[in-house]
Amino acid sequence: IQTMVNIDIFVNEGKTNKEGRGGQREKGDMSTDYDNDQPSITTLKILIIGESGVGKSSLMLRFVDDVFDPEQPATIGVDFRVTSMNVDGNRVKLAIWDTAGQERFRTLTPSYYRGAQGIIFVYDVTNRSTMDRLDHWLTETETYCTKGDAVRMVVANKIDMPNREVSREEGLKLARKYRALFIEASAKTKEGVQCAFEELIEKIIQTPTLWESDRPKFKLGAPAQSSDGSCAC
């Protein structure tokens, strides 16, 4: 059964706006399958930020290891994972930083922003306060992030859960406010997780100023699109 994923893009130019329902991305464009002997062309630093308990660690572990632990403990300080993706035949290494959301760890956060090319902001659709707090996290990036054009994505997690408190439209409005990517996902069912990371990496690759000047250039293939012109993932 093919999972259909909604994804919305509000980045770069003000008019850049792809919104709608997409299908599966064509195989071979992006994947986590790669040749271990193939040298990586670059390393991208990705941060995952949000309140405690929204599922940041679960999203990271689902993407990196394809596992889900319903008893996943809260992150203490920061967790760190390294993986690689194949982007149009080029190996890209990803350094993914999972930050703690508890108040007592927030003084550690500024140092983790340095050099980040992509930032994922996560909230729990069953807990409105976690979305309200994203205004704080999103504003904080403007202060501490050393790359002004870092790609930002808002992920609405736990869409598999009942008693939803935040509608998709509200999440979309928040993402539009900060000109960020937006996607709904479930770390438990896997829906939207792979697509979220793929879209984020694709946008980073398409932003030349985020690349180190001594890295070799490569051409990213055109993103797959559904028949109605919306983003396919």
Automatic annotation (TrEMBL):
Single GO molecular function: GTP binding
Ranges for the region named Disordered are 15-35
> Which InterPro entries does the annotation name?
P-loop_NTPase (IPR027417), Rab (IPR050227), Sigma_54_int_dom_ATP-bd_1 (IPR025662), Small_GTP-bd (IPR005225), Small_GTPase (IPR001806)
Stored PROSITE patterns: ARF, RAB, RAS, RHO, SIGMA54_INTERACT_1
Recorded catalytic activity of this chain's protein? GTP + H2O = GDP + phosphate + H(+)
| Biased composition regions of type Basic and acidic residues, renumbered to the chain | 15-30
Q: Which UniProt keywords apply?
A: GTP-binding, Hydrolase, Lipoprotein, Nucleotide-binding, Prenylation, Protein transport, Transport
Family annotation (CDD domains): Rab18
Q: What is its EC number?
A: 3.6.5.2
Pfam families in the record: Ras
Give the protein family: Belongs to the small GTPase superfamily. Rab family.
NCBIfam families in the cross-refs: small_GTP
- Could you identify this protein by its name? small monomeric GTPase
Organism of origin? Pristionchus fissidentatus
